[in-house]
Protein backbone atom coordinates (compact mmCIF):
# COMPACT_ATOMS: atom_id res chain seq x y z
CA UNK A 1 0.00 0.00 0.00
CA UNK A 2 1.43 3.38 -1.02
CA UNK A 3 1.77 6.19 1.56
CA UNK A 4 -0.89 8.18 -0.21
CA UNK A 5 -3.46 5.42 0.30
CA UNK A 6 -5.92 6.33 3.07
CA UNK A 7 -8.32 4.13 4.97
CA UNK A 8 -11.45 5.99 6.04
CA UNK A 9 -14.01 4.95 8.63
CA UNK A 10 -17.33 6.65 8.06
CA UNK A 11 -18.99 5.58 11.25
CA UNK A 12 -19.45 9.00 12.87
CA UNK A 13 -22.49 10.85 11.49
CA UNK A 14 -22.76 14.57 12.16
CA UNK A 15 -26.18 14.49 13.70
CA UNK A 16 -28.30 12.21 15.84
CA UNK A 17 -30.89 12.18 13.08
CA UNK A 18 -28.42 10.59 10.69
CA UNK A 19 -27.52 8.04 13.37
CA UNK A 20 -31.13 7.02 13.83
CA UNK A 21 -31.72 6.89 10.12
CA UNK A 22 -28.71 4.93 8.91
CA UNK A 23 -27.45 2.95 11.94
CA UNK A 24 -30.20 1.34 14.03
CA UNK A 25 -29.44 0.24 17.59
CA UNK A 26 -29.70 -3.43 16.66
CA UNK A 27 -26.42 -3.08 14.73
CA UNK A 28 -24.41 -1.30 17.43
CA UNK A 29 -25.98 -2.64 20.65
CA UNK A 30 -26.10 -6.36 21.29
CA UNK A 31 -25.90 -8.98 24.05
CA UNK A 32 -23.34 -11.74 24.37
CA UNK A 33 -23.08 -14.32 27.18
CA UNK A 34 -25.35 -12.48 29.65
CA UNK A 35 -23.63 -9.15 28.97
CA UNK A 36 -24.67 -6.14 26.92
CA UNK A 37 -22.30 -4.24 24.60
CA UNK A 38 -23.27 -0.72 23.59
CA UNK A 39 -21.06 0.67 20.82
CA UNK A 40 -23.56 3.27 19.66
CA UNK A 41 -21.83 6.21 21.45
CA UNK A 42 -18.81 5.67 19.20
CA UNK A 43 -20.93 6.70 16.22
CA UNK A 44 -21.59 10.12 17.72
CA UNK A 45 -17.99 11.27 18.21
CA UNK A 46 -16.45 13.88 15.86
CA UNK A 47 -13.98 13.09 13.12
CA UNK A 48 -10.27 12.71 13.87
CA UNK A 49 -7.06 11.66 12.18
CA UNK A 50 -4.50 9.09 13.32
CA UNK A 51 -1.33 8.82 11.26
CA UNK A 52 -2.12 8.15 7.63
CA UNK A 53 -5.72 7.30 8.40
CA UNK A 54 -8.59 9.70 8.58
CA UNK A 55 -11.90 8.85 10.10
CA UNK A 56 -15.31 10.32 9.30
CA UNK A 57 -14.14 12.15 6.21
CA UNK A 58 -17.57 12.31 4.63
CA UNK A 59 -17.76 16.10 5.02
CA UNK A 60 -14.07 16.75 4.48
CA UNK A 61 -12.60 18.44 1.45
CA UNK A 62 -10.52 15.35 0.75
CA UNK A 63 -11.62 12.19 -1.01
CA UNK A 64 -14.68 10.59 0.46
CA UNK A 65 -16.23 7.15 0.29
CA UNK A 66 -19.39 6.29 -1.50
CA UNK A 67 -22.80 6.75 0.04
CA UNK A 68 -24.03 4.40 2.74
CA UNK A 69 -20.50 3.21 3.52
CA UNK A 70 -19.03 2.85 6.99
CA UNK A 71 -15.46 1.89 6.16
CA UNK A 72 -13.77 2.54 2.87
CA UNK A 73 -10.32 2.59 1.36
CA UNK A 74 -9.62 5.65 -0.80
CA UNK A 75 -6.81 5.93 -3.32
CA UNK A 76 -6.42 9.01 -5.57
CA UNK A 77 -5.47 6.74 -8.47
CA UNK A 78 -8.57 4.54 -8.26
CA UNK A 79 -12.15 4.58 -7.06
CA UNK A 80 -12.95 4.09 -3.37
CA UNK A 81 -13.21 0.50 -2.13
CA UNK A 82 -16.11 -0.34 0.16
CA UNK A 83 -14.82 -2.23 3.19
CA UNK A 84 -17.99 -2.24 5.32
CA UNK A 85 -21.38 -1.29 3.97
CA UNK A 86 -24.02 0.31 6.13
CA UNK A 87 -26.60 -2.14 4.82
CA UNK A 88 -24.57 -5.16 5.94
CA UNK A 89 -24.92 -6.52 9.48
CA UNK A 90 -22.67 -4.66 11.85
CA UNK A 91 -21.94 -7.84 13.85
CA UNK A 92 -21.54 -10.76 11.51
CA UNK A 93 -19.09 -12.78 13.60
CA UNK A 94 -18.90 -11.78 17.29
CA UNK A 95 -16.31 -13.71 19.26
CA UNK A 96 -14.21 -13.42 22.38
CA UNK A 97 -10.48 -13.93 21.86
CA UNK A 98 -8.00 -13.36 24.68
CA UNK A 99 -9.91 -10.49 26.32
CA UNK A 100 -10.83 -8.92 22.99
CA UNK A 101 -14.25 -8.48 21.47
CA UNK A 102 -13.81 -9.53 17.87
CA UNK A 103 -16.34 -8.11 15.42
CA UNK A 104 -16.21 -8.41 11.65
CA UNK A 105 -17.99 -6.03 9.32
CA UNK A 106 -18.69 -7.29 5.83
CA UNK A 107 -18.07 -5.09 2.81
CA UNK A 108 -18.12 -5.28 -0.95
CA UNK A 109 -16.13 -6.88 -3.75
CA UNK A 110 -13.51 -5.05 -5.81
CA UNK A 111 -11.62 -6.69 -8.71
CA UNK A 112 -12.63 -10.15 -7.52
CA UNK A 113 -11.46 -9.55 -3.91
CA UNK A 114 -13.93 -9.50 -1.06
CA UNK A 115 -13.20 -6.76 1.51
CA UNK A 116 -14.17 -6.69 5.17
CA UNK A 117 -13.18 -4.89 8.37
CA UNK A 118 -12.05 -6.79 11.47
CA UNK A 119 -11.98 -4.73 14.68
CA UNK A 120 -10.70 -5.92 18.07
CA UNK A 121 -12.47 -3.88 20.75
CA UNK A 122 -10.58 -3.64 24.06
CA UNK A 123 -12.19 -2.56 27.32
CA UNK A 124 -10.34 0.59 28.45
CA UNK A 125 -11.84 2.91 31.09
CA UNK A 126 -9.00 5.47 31.02
CA UNK A 127 -10.64 8.16 28.91
CA UNK A 128 -7.79 10.64 29.54
CA UNK A 129 -5.60 8.88 26.97
CA UNK A 130 -6.06 10.14 23.46
CA UNK A 131 -5.70 6.71 21.90
CA UNK A 132 -8.39 5.23 24.13
CA UNK A 133 -11.12 6.32 21.70
CA UNK A 134 -9.24 6.06 18.41
CA UNK A 135 -8.82 2.90 16.35
CA UNK A 136 -5.36 1.71 15.39
CA UNK A 137 -4.74 -0.03 12.08
CA UNK A 138 -2.94 -3.35 12.39
CA UNK A 139 -2.57 -5.15 9.05
CA UNK A 140 -4.36 -5.73 5.75
CA UNK A 141 -4.27 -9.22 4.23
CA UNK A 142 -6.42 -10.70 1.45
CA UNK A 143 -8.97 -7.92 1.68
CA UNK A 144 -9.35 -8.14 5.47
CA UNK A 145 -8.55 -4.82 7.18
CA UNK A 146 -7.76 -5.28 10.88
CA UNK A 147 -7.97 -2.61 13.60
CA UNK A 148 -7.39 -2.38 17.32
CA UNK A 149 -9.78 -0.12 19.22
CA UNK A 150 -9.39 0.49 22.98
CA UNK A 151 -12.38 2.30 24.44
CA UNK A 152 -14.58 2.30 27.51
CA UNK A 153 -17.62 1.56 25.35
CA UNK A 154 -16.22 -1.92 24.69
CA UNK A 155 -16.62 -2.87 28.37
CA UNK A 156 -19.53 -5.29 28.75
CA UNK A 157 -22.45 -4.17 30.89
CA UNK A 158 -23.83 -6.93 33.08
CA UNK A 159 -27.51 -7.70 33.26
CA UNK A 160 -29.66 -6.42 36.12
CA UNK A 161 -29.08 -9.43 38.39
CA UNK A 162 -25.28 -9.27 37.99
CA UNK A 163 -24.82 -5.48 37.85
CA UNK A 164 -21.77 -4.23 39.73
CA UNK A 165 -21.15 -0.85 41.37
CA UNK A 166 -19.49 0.69 38.34
CA UNK A 167 -21.84 -0.96 35.85
CA UNK A 168 -18.97 -2.40 33.79
CA UNK A 169 -17.30 -5.80 33.63
CA UNK A 170 -13.67 -5.23 32.68
CA UNK A 171 -12.57 -8.00 30.38
CA UNK A 172 -9.11 -6.77 29.41
CA UNK A 173 -6.54 -4.03 29.46
CA UNK A 174 -4.72 -2.37 26.58
CA UNK A 175 -2.82 -4.84 24.42
CA UNK A 176 0.35 -2.71 24.57
CA UNK A 177 0.35 -2.61 28.39
CA UNK A 178 -0.22 -6.39 28.73
CA UNK A 179 1.20 -8.17 25.71
CA UNK A 180 1.24 -11.59 27.38
CA UNK A 181 -2.28 -11.47 28.75
CA UNK A 182 -3.63 -13.59 25.93
CA UNK A 183 -1.11 -16.36 26.60
CA UNK A 184 -2.16 -16.69 30.23
CA UNK A 185 -5.78 -17.40 29.40
CA UNK A 186 -7.03 -20.56 27.72
CA UNK A 187 -9.68 -19.86 25.12
CA UNK A 188 -11.34 -16.61 24.26
CA UNK A 189 -14.34 -16.67 26.62
CA UNK A 190 -12.68 -16.59 30.03
CA UNK A 191 -13.34 -12.97 30.98
CA UNK A 192 -15.47 -14.22 33.90
CA UNK A 193 -13.86 -16.17 36.73
CA UNK A 194 -15.20 -19.73 36.74
CA UNK A 195 -17.17 -20.94 39.72
CA UNK A 196 -14.80 -22.66 42.14
CA UNK A 197 -16.18 -25.49 44.22
CA UNK A 198 -15.59 -25.15 47.98
CA UNK A 199 -12.73 -27.24 49.27
CA UNK A 200 -12.02 -28.60 52.73
CA UNK A 201 -9.54 -26.61 54.72
CA UNK A 202 -6.24 -28.11 55.81
CA UNK A 203 -7.36 -28.12 59.44
CA UNK A 204 -10.54 -30.09 58.70
CA UNK A 205 -8.62 -32.60 56.59
CA UNK A 206 -5.98 -33.13 59.29
CA UNK A 207 -8.67 -33.56 61.98
CA UNK A 208 -10.52 -36.15 59.91
CA UNK A 209 -7.35 -38.16 59.27
CA UNK A 210 -6.41 -38.00 62.98
CA UNK A 211 -9.80 -39.33 64.11
CA UNK A 212 -9.68 -42.22 61.63
CA UNK A 213 -6.13 -43.09 62.71
CA UNK A 214 -7.06 -43.10 66.41
CA UNK A 215 -10.01 -45.40 65.76
CA UNK A 216 -7.83 -47.87 63.85
CA UNK A 217 -5.11 -47.88 66.54
CA UNK A 218 -7.66 -48.35 69.34
CA UNK A 219 -9.28 -51.27 67.52
CA UNK A 220 -5.94 -53.00 66.98
CA UNK A 221 -4.94 -52.46 70.63
CA UNK A 222 -8.15 -53.98 72.06
CA UNK A 223 -7.88 -56.95 69.70
CA UNK A 224 -4.36 -57.90 70.80
CA UNK A 225 -4.70 -56.73 74.45
CA UNK A 226 -8.32 -57.23 75.53
CA UNK A 227 -9.33 -55.83 78.95
CA UNK A 228 -9.81 -59.15 80.74
CA UNK A 229 -10.62 -57.60 84.13
CA UNK A 230 -13.37 -55.50 82.65
CA UNK A 231 -14.78 -58.47 80.76
CA UNK A 232 -14.69 -60.86 83.74
CA UNK A 233 -16.03 -58.53 86.43
CA UNK A 234 -18.52 -56.37 84.56
CA UNK A 235 -19.39 -57.58 81.10
CA UNK A 236 -19.83 -61.32 81.62
CA UNK A 237 -21.94 -61.03 84.83
CA UNK A 238 -24.16 -58.53 83.10
CA UNK A 239 -24.64 -60.82 80.12
CA UNK A 240 -25.39 -63.81 82.35
CA UNK A 241 -28.29 -61.95 84.00
CA UNK A 242 -29.95 -61.19 80.71
CA UNK A 243 -33.12 -63.24 80.01
CA UNK A 244 -31.68 -65.10 77.09
CA UNK A 245 -33.20 -68.42 75.92
CA UNK A 246 -31.39 -71.67 76.44
CA UNK A 247 -28.80 -71.93 73.72
CA UNK A 248 -28.71 -75.75 73.66
CA UNK A 249 -32.46 -76.18 73.34
CA UNK A 250 -32.63 -73.37 70.83
CA UNK A 251 -29.95 -74.95 68.67
CA UNK A 252 -31.38 -78.46 68.94
CA UNK A 253 -34.92 -77.46 68.07
CA UNK A 254 -34.19 -75.05 65.29
CA UNK A 255 -30.94 -76.25 63.85
CA UNK A 256 -30.53 -79.88 62.91
CA UNK A 257 -27.26 -81.30 61.74
CA UNK A 258 -27.21 -81.64 58.04
CA UNK A 259 -26.21 -84.95 56.60
CA UNK A 260 -23.89 -84.82 53.66
CA UNK A 261 -23.69 -87.64 51.20
CA UNK A 262 -20.41 -89.40 51.09
CA UNK A 263 -18.37 -89.22 47.96
CA UNK A 264 -17.48 -92.91 48.19
CA UNK A 265 -19.41 -95.39 46.11
CA UNK A 266 -21.70 -97.73 48.07
CA UNK A 267 -20.21 -101.18 48.62
CA UNK A 268 -22.18 -104.35 47.84
CA UNK A 269 -24.06 -105.90 50.78
CA UNK A 270 -22.16 -108.41 52.90
CA UNK A 271 -24.08 -111.73 52.91
CA UNK A 272 -21.93 -113.41 55.55
CA UNK A 273 -24.00 -114.52 58.53
CA UNK A 274 -22.84 -114.52 62.11
CA UNK A 275 -22.03 -117.59 64.24
CA UNK A 276 -25.21 -117.50 66.31
CA UNK A 277 -27.39 -117.43 63.24
CA UNK A 278 -25.60 -120.48 61.79
CA UNK A 279 -26.12 -122.45 65.03
CA UNK A 280 -29.79 -121.49 65.04
CA UNK A 281 -30.25 -122.68 61.52
CA UNK A 282 -28.50 -125.97 62.30
CA UNK A 283 -30.70 -126.62 65.31
CA UNK A 284 -33.87 -125.97 63.36
CA UNK A 285 -33.02 -128.16 60.40
CA UNK A 286 -31.59 -131.21 62.16
CA UNK A 287 -33.75 -134.14 63.13
CA UNK A 288 -32.97 -136.75 65.74
CA UNK A 289 -31.67 -139.18 63.14
CA UNK A 290 -29.60 -136.61 61.35
CA UNK A 291 -27.10 -135.75 64.04
CA UNK A 292 -23.95 -134.12 62.89
CA UNK A 293 -21.43 -136.62 64.25
CA UNK A 294 -18.63 -134.57 62.84
CA UNK A 295 -19.29 -131.81 65.31
CA UNK A 296 -21.36 -133.60 67.98
CA UNK A 297 -20.60 -137.02 69.44
CA UNK A 298 -22.90 -140.02 69.35
CA UNK A 299 -23.65 -139.97 73.03
CA UNK A 300 -22.73 -138.09 76.10
CA UNK A 301 -19.75 -140.25 76.93
CA UNK A 302 -18.15 -139.63 73.63
CA UNK A 303 -18.93 -135.97 73.87
CA UNK A 304 -16.92 -135.76 77.05
CA UNK A 305 -13.86 -137.23 75.41
CA UNK A 306 -14.36 -135.29 72.20
CA UNK A 307 -13.61 -131.68 71.78
CA UNK A 308 -15.80 -128.79 70.78
CA UNK A 309 -14.81 -127.21 67.55
CA UNK A 310 -16.18 -123.68 67.10
CA UNK A 311 -17.59 -122.54 63.82
CA UNK A 312 -15.37 -119.49 63.74
CA UNK A 313 -11.71 -118.92 64.19
CA UNK A 314 -10.71 -118.50 67.82
CA UNK A 315 -9.16 -115.39 69.22
CA UNK A 316 -6.45 -117.18 71.19
CA UNK A 317 -3.40 -115.50 69.66
CA UNK A 318 -1.05 -116.90 72.30
CA UNK A 319 -1.23 -120.53 71.21
CA UNK A 320 0.94 -121.78 68.43
CA UNK A 321 -1.36 -124.58 67.37
CA UNK A 322 -2.62 -124.47 63.84
CA UNK A 323 -6.13 -123.08 63.62
CA UNK A 324 -8.33 -125.38 61.53
CA UNK A 325 -11.85 -124.39 60.72
CA UNK A 326 -14.31 -127.23 61.56
CA UNK A 327 -11.58 -129.88 62.13
CA UNK A 328 -11.81 -132.42 64.97
CA UNK A 329 -8.29 -133.65 64.95
CA UNK A 330 -4.85 -132.08 64.97
CA UNK A 331 -2.01 -133.65 63.09
TrEMBL record:
<keyword id="KW-1133">Transmembrane helix</keyword>
<feature type="signal peptide">
    <location>
        <begin position="1"/>
        <end position="18"/>
    </location>
</feature>
<dbReference type="InterPro" id="IPR018939">
    <property type="entry name" value="Autophagy-rel_prot_27"/>
</dbReference>
<comment type="similarity">
    <text>Belongs to the ATG27 family.</text>
</comment>
<keyword id="KW-0472">Membrane</keyword>
<keyword id="KW-0496">Mitochondrion</keyword>
<dbReference type="GO" id="GO:0000139">
    <property type="term" value="C:Golgi membrane"/>
</dbReference>
<keyword id="KW-0732">Signal</keyword>
<dbReference type="InterPro" id="IPR009011">
    <property type="entry name" value="Man6P_isomerase_rcpt-bd_dom_sf"/>
</dbReference>
<dbReference type="InterPro" id="IPR044865">
    <property type="entry name" value="MRH_dom"/>
</dbReference>
<protein>
    <recommendedName>
        <fullName>Autophagy-related protein 27</fullName>
    </recommendedName>
</protein>
<keyword id="KW-0072">Autophagy</keyword>
<dbReference type="GO" id="GO:0031966">
    <property type="term" value="C:mitochondrial membrane"/>
</dbReference>
<keyword id="KW-0333">Golgi apparatus</keyword>
<feature type="domain" description="MRH">
    <location>
        <begin position="26"/>
        <end position="157"/>
    </location>
</feature>
<keyword id="KW-1015">Disulfide bond</keyword>
<dbReference type="GO" id="GO:0006914">
    <property type="term" value="P:autophagy"/>
</dbReference>
<dbReference type="GO" id="GO:0030659">
    <property type="term" value="C:cytoplasmic vesicle membrane"/>
</dbReference>
<dbReference type="Pfam" id="PF09451">
    <property type="entry name" value="ATG27"/>
</dbReference>
<keyword id="KW-0812">Transmembrane</keyword>
<keyword id="KW-0968">Cytoplasmic vesicle</keyword>
Amino acid sequence: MSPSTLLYLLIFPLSLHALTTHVPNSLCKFSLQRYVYDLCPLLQEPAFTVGDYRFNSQNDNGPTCTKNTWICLNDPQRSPITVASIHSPMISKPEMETHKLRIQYTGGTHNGTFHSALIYFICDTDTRLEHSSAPKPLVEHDGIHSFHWATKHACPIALADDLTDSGYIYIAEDLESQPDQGEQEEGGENFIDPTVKPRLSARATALTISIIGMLLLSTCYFIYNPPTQLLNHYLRPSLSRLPLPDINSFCLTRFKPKKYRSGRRPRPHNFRVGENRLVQWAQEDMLEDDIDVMVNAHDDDDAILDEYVPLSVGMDWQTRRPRDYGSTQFP
